[in-house]
Amino acid sequence: VAPMGQTRTCVSGRRCAIDGLQGQHLSTADQWLVLDTCSSFSEAPLLQSKAVSMLVTGDTSARLDWGSLPITAQGGQYRLCWCAGALLSRESNATLQDSNTSLCGQWDSSPVYVGDLTVVGPPKAAGKLQCTSGLPCEIDQIAGGQHLSDGDSFLLMDTCGAAWRQGDRLPRFPGDALAVTVQASGTVVSWGSVVVTALGGEYRLCWCSGNGFPCSTFEDFQVDVGELVVTGPSSFSQDRTCVAGMRCRVEPIVGVNVMNRALNDVSRIRVMSYGDGARDPEYLFIYAGDTPQGPWSELGSFSMYAGYSSVQEFSGWQASAARYWKLTFESFQAANSSARIRELEFLGTWRGKKQWAQSASWVVAVEPAAGQSASDSAATLMDGNRATWWPSEDVASNSSISVVVDFGSGDQLAVLETCGVQSSMLSRPLDRVPVGGLMDCGSWDSTALTAAGGVFRLCWCP
């Protein structure tokens, strides 16, 4: 009394009904479960253990309907499993137990594999998704799922599927929090080039299938992909007061992951050389210190492969909380020309997330100084493109080159006429200042504030 093999499809965020399930001696007492495997009951079913309504036609065809509420399971391929609702006598074909009593709850019976149920939808995000106020927002962590497409829609909400009033969209987010572009078969979501200025906080990333569905109301976005953490101040009313003629101290800005260091807990370093055996470094020495001039404590020394253009990765030093790191590369082959490297990258913790990162703004010193060519500037040493950087051909021969990196140059505050306006930055009444805890502001040192009185904007930059 089991149905024959067959497969069906439902869409996450929509109601699920399955027609035309074929079998013999089907009954309304049967149970249909959606599981990862039909071998046991040890796992919770994906959908309700029994369909809300079941229509059996002539005991050979069944229709299952899980009701008017949408399913919100993550996208994937699951097993459609069946349990008999009654036992039949082989001799008389008579029912041996009440037809309303299912065998699915009995441990001496196992569900029968009927076929696959494909649920179209995104996966649950692995970990928290991240964006930063003051920067454009793009998410590329939606790997997996089932049959995602570039026509799907993603919306940021407080609660997925909640019935909001018109005008309740998250403020200060591009596109009214609706993703501007969806690419790479629905796995890359972007809110465009416009910067996010939303408050720091935790939001839900909600999904709606673009396969024949309008995605025009908040209720259409039932599927919760995961939590999106927006780094930034948690209030726009964090006013501060300073008095001209006196030192000015600014209390820390309150928010989500604000006033952090640029990178913490650096545990690995990647280096890319040219693949030129005559000029590539052969040794790497790593130092740490509390000032960009030292004194330096050696964390480790490593051999490098000259003539090897792929990425070389180094690790194993003792953890250091030092703000400044110095990387010295030595080559004994560069007798008639300068030793050189192409790209640097660091693995550390930034805003609570372990990741590889680089930023030209972290470079505070190079020894010897590079030439004046734009292509040889510090900006291309840590831009992620592995571009030619240092040193240029007009620098005298050097068997040793060093780069000093500041991992403490994190968030910054500036006092401006208007936040985010270039002309305001050029005419700022007070200079930008890195802030960690309570810091002197005014002229951003220990001298008294001499700026003219007035009301200015306190602006935050990650």
Q: Outline the low-pLDDT stretches.
A: 88-101, 432-444
Query: Mean of the pLDDT scores?
Result: 77
Measured on Cα atoms, how large is the radius of gyration? 31 Å
Number of strands: 29
Pairing-aware structural class of the strands and helices?
A: mainly beta
Shape: flat
Helix count, per DSSP?
Answer: 1
Specify the helix fraction band.
under 10%
**Distance N to C terminus:** 64 Å
The biggest sheet, with number of strands, parallel, antiparallel or mixed sense and barrel status, is: 5 strands, mixed
Helix-strand pattern, N to C? EEEEEEEEEEEEEEEEEEEEEEEEEEHEEE
Beta-strand residue fraction: 25-35%
What does this structure look like?
The chain is mainly β and 462 residues long. Helix content is 1%, strand content 34%. It has one helix and 29 strands. Strands 8, 10, 13, 14 and 16 form a five-stranded mixed β-sheet that branches. The chain has a five-stranded antiparallel β-sheet with strand order 19-18-21-25-24, with no helix packed on it. A four-stranded mixed β-sheet has the order 1-7-6-3, with no helix packed on it. The longest helix has 5 residues.
Short key terms for the protein model shown above:
462 residues; mainly beta; 5-stranded mixed β-sheet; 5-stranded antiparallel β-sheet; 29 strands
Provide a short characterization of the protein structure.
This protein has one helix at 422-426; strands spanning 8-11, 17-22, 31-35, 53-57, 61-65, 76-83, 112-120, 129-132, 138-139, 153-157, 181-183, 188-190, 201-208, 223-233, 249-250, 255-256, 264-272, 283-289, 297-303, 311-315, 324-330, 343-350, 353-357, 363-367, 400-406, 412-416, 433-434, 439-440, 457-461. It has 462 residues and is mainly β. Strands 8, 10, 13, 14 and 16 form a 5-stranded mixed β-sheet that branches.
